[in-house]
Amino acid sequence: MTPPPARRRRTGASGTAPAHNFPRRGAVRRAQAITTYGIGSLIAVDHESFIVSGLDEAEQSWSRDESPRIYERRLARLLDVDYFRLPPASDDTSRDGLRVRRFPLMHSCPECNDLQRHRDFNPPAGRSVCGTCEVDLVPSRFVVACEAGHLGEFPYWQWVHRSTVRGATTVGQCGGKLKMRTTGRTSSLRSILVSCTCGQAPEVSMEGSFRRQALKDLGLKCRGTRPWLGSSAPAQECGLSLRTLQRGSSAVWQPVLKSALSIPPWSNRREDPLAGHWVKLRKYDDRAGVAIYLDALFDDEWPISLDEVMALLAAEREEDPDSESAPTFDHRYRALRNMEYERLRSGNDESEQSRDEQFVCETPLGDQSVLDPLGVTGPMLVKKLREVRALKAFTRLVDAESTTDAKEMSLSEQPMRWLPAMEVQGEGVFLRLAEDRLGAWEKTRAVAARVERMHTAHQRLLEERADDPSRVVPSPATPRMVLLHTLAHVLINEWSLEAGYPAAALRERLYAADDMAGVLVYTATSDSAGSLGGLVAQGEPEVLARTVRSAVRRAEWCSSDPLCMETEASGAGGINLAACHACVMLPETSCEHNNVLLDRALLVGTPEDPAVGFFADILNP
Q: Distances in Å between the alpha carbon of 507 and those of 121, 201, 259, 519?
């Protein structure tokens, strides 16, 4: 995906001069600075390629006016930061923006076929053209990365000279210059030929450069380079195996996003008046100690009362997971989800809250007994919600959703007390599945066997992508999780027709564990269009019952059947079963799990065994 070119800056009184002398290269939406073009990612602008700089530069360049602070105490506590900041908006009033650096540095000229660093072409200032041929330079299509998140230039010199100087790492010691040309016969790597003018090595193609052991066979290992932090950042000791990647591959950068809903008692104001002081406050167990600390902290009137501080401290302690040992990040994140689940179940009536309340969740007035035959219970109308999504880190080569903290690459060289994030306001519908019916269904042998195939395939895929299989996070595939995930997808497809929202504007939030079985479908927009009431109206019991029945009946048939229903494996890595883009798959922005671990047979059953479907009674009353 290439962002649109930068718009021409207005001049005159309404125009705003940039706060620096750097040229503006392009424009991206604010949300893309979290999900697509975040810190450490590669971004293509016209015929040039850049990498987004780290937070160390953002600390200096993101102005307070363009990158305001946002607060979500529960998420900030989980990620060990004080606050979050919105990325700068890329419009005509922006004085700065996302800082980028040219990467990769290796370029080729399609006219003279030279392959060398960008600066060696002697391009005119502000342009990326060959100083001799005056044609646009082409950034290297290939980069190398390791599973620790480091990124580097493809070793063209070692690749060309591999037959003569195996294991050599001194670039240019032969005295020649690299050349790159394409035969044009095919679009394969075999048609891309690299040579050296020294004459000591034959011309070679790029075929075979993507083998897992290709660079290891040359004696090359990762040197720990981090180009998004600039040349001043020292290389880290790494030594892991390098893999060749296409510059535009999705494996080059995957964001590690963490999100939280603003729920009481943290949902009644935007700013945290005690940001940065919670660690000290938590050491006091009595009101007297807290009062003394607050008295020393604030010279004037306290921004909140002592009773509120004690209530917030109690809420923090309540959210701590029950564990004798130090809880891991995953345990703490699950505890955060558990608190959201309980709050969605219990609700938060609007009549009892102030106008500043950002979380309003009410029980519908209709008769909920109409949902009992469907196995659905506890619908809630989420009339107001606020979600904060933060970019915690990023990964390369490995799936961001199934990696360990050790494989996550930090966004900065120095520890930072903030992270880039987006806040989303909207509305939604929450529903649960009846535990007694769900428990009996997930214990049936046919259901367990079907999900076990998905779990095994997913676990195998995770282990194949990892250098150390022992550190792979277990697959989350369970009958409950796959059922809730597929149900959320068919509901989003149905509500996109009934509620007037495109599917890309709706998003799922799954609560699947031994003690949770819920789905929240909500609007995923960052403006007021997410609170128009069209989705909340779908949560009334009678309307919801019709929607569930219609969604399940629609999922019974797919235009790709019988291939879709009878497939043994589908999707990337074969970790889906009966799921394709013609039936249950959604835009990636709507799905928490990248459109994997889906199977509509768990909703409707199969022709051979209808009982596999949780909602089979709807189709066969």
A: 47, 55, 13, 10
